[in-house]
Write a structure and sequence with these properties.
It is a single chain. The protein is mainly alpha-helical and 422 residues long. A hairpin with a 3-residue loop joins strand 1 and strand 2. Helix 1 crosses helix 3, helix 4 packs across helix 6 and helix 13 runs parallel beside helix 16.
Length: 422
């Protein structure tokens, strides 16, 4: 069988290689020059810009130079550390066809035209979506180096990009970087994003987007440490007409504070601290975080009921619950100084017994314990009995309490009768 004989090669002869095997030189400057040249010929006509970008993707390597492409469309040139434009190569280093070159007086129609440029570009080249999301985080880190007018324009575009789904709301969290926070730049930028969103789409749209992304739980991370007070934070939002978002934040903050209160109580109980010390701690924390007494007593109930390993037998769990709760009646009593707090605790017991089937028969014994230890008054029990507050198991619990309530009513009538005789 014949074998193919390799042809001799002259010394010094260059062997031709396939083009696809040659490694292309990384040339962002050349890419920039080609894009700037094309954009400058569009004369700020948005349709022409979109047509140019669509066609250029077939000639230029968007996959390789995606970051540079978005830098050019936003800032006019390639951004380098420090937020300045790359000055390598031959001028011009910047195009006038960019977001930062739009009018300083915000024109929402122009900004939305830019939004469409980005939408069309990423719709045509889907792989640019991920590159864009990463690039925006880098651009936001440079806001310190942009002019106030450029920051305003960028904040409008960030609102538009978040609202149309081009970037997630969480992208703004990169602004919580310390060097942006301490100069108020992070908070000011975020407030501008909120403000333009509210003006353009209304507060309900903004409220819904913030709540869905849970951004309200991170708002304080945008406030400088030196100004980390509720007063400063409240004023910053109120002055910009964002009271609704402030309320959303306050609600979220309250939930976190209540969780912290519950953890603090659980820790104190596990350490066997004296109840008088626990009461003092809870009152101080509740006052600081504006947690009301009727809310605190419900947290106490939930925390205490999480401690034992409850019996699975209905006939045993009632005595177990009464013995357990009897140890903490002074704690409950300290936070049922108002009728509202008493009623809230009673309704909390009702809800718990209804939700935990083994406790269905324990309701009456628990309420009797609280009555005898002055945690819940007879007036509140009678009020609960006569009025509809919660339907959860109400008929069964009313039946359990019927005999005791009749006794209370008879005692009240006898007392009234004795008073009238005198």
């Amino acid at each position: 069988m014949s074998q193919k004989v390799e042809k001799p090669v002259l010394s010094g002869q260059r062997i031709k290689t396939r083009k696809r095997d040659e490694k292309e030189r990384y040339d962002p400057v050349g890419f920039r020059d080609a894009i700037i040249s094309g954009l400058d010929q569009c004369n700020n006509n948005f349709e022409a810009i979109s047509r140019f970008l669509d066609g250029a993707g077939n000639k230029q390597d968007y996959r390789r130079y995606g970051e540079s492409l978005f830098d050019i469309l936003i800032a006019g040139g390639i951004l380098v550390p420090g937020g300045t434009l790359l000055q390598e190569g031959e001028a011009p280093f910047k195009t006038s066809a960019c977001i930062f070159n739009s009018p300083d007086e915000i024109n929402m129609e122009i900004m939305k035209s830019w939004e469409q440029v980005f939408i069309k570009l990423m719709r045509r080249y889907k792989y640019l979506e991920k590159i864009f999301q990463d690039e925006i985080k880098k651009v936001l880190m440079f806001v310190k180096y942009f002019t106030p007018a450029e920051r305003k324009k960028l904040s409008v575009m960030v609102y538009l990009w978040i609202s149309n789904g081009s970037i997630p709301f969480s992208a703004v969290q990169v602004l919580s970087n310390s060097h942006l926070v301490k100069d108020h730049l992070a908070l000011d930028f975020l407030i501008d994003v909120f403000k333009y969103w509210r003006q353009d789409k209304g507060v309900n749209s903004l409220y819904s987007a913030i709540k869905k992304s849970n951004i309200e739980s991170h708002l304080m991370s945008f406030v400088p440490d030196t100004k980390q007070s509720q007063v400063y934070f409240r004023n910053a939002f109120q002055e910009n007409g964002l009271e609704e978002i402030l309320k959303l934040y306050n609600d979220q903050h309250q939930q976190l504070a209540k969780k912290e209160l519950q953890v603090m109580l659980a820790d104190s109980l596990s350490e066997n601290k004296p109840q008088r010390d626990i009461i003092t701690e809870l009152r101080e924390f509740a006052a600081k975080e504006n947690i009301q007494e009727h809310e605190t007593v419900c947290i106490i109930w939930t925390t205490l009921m999480d401690i034992p390993e409850w019996s699975k037998k209905e006939e045993l769990v009632t005595d177990q619950a009464v013995r357990h709760l009897k140890l903490y009646t002074s704690l409950f009593s300290a936070f049922t100084q108002s009728a509202r707090s008493e009623l809230n605790l009673l309704l909390k017991v009702q809800e718990y017994c209804y939700s935990n089937m083994t406790f269905m028969r324990a309701f009456q014994k628990i309420i009797m314990l609280f009555y005898k230890t002055d945690v819940i008054s007879e007036q509140v029990i009678l009020k609960w009995y006569k009025q509809d507050y919660s339907v959860k198991g109400k008929m069964m619990f009313v039946d359990q309490m019927k005999q005791f309530v009749e006794w209370l009513q008879n005692a009240e009538e006898e007392s009234d009768s004795e008073g009238s005789t005198e």
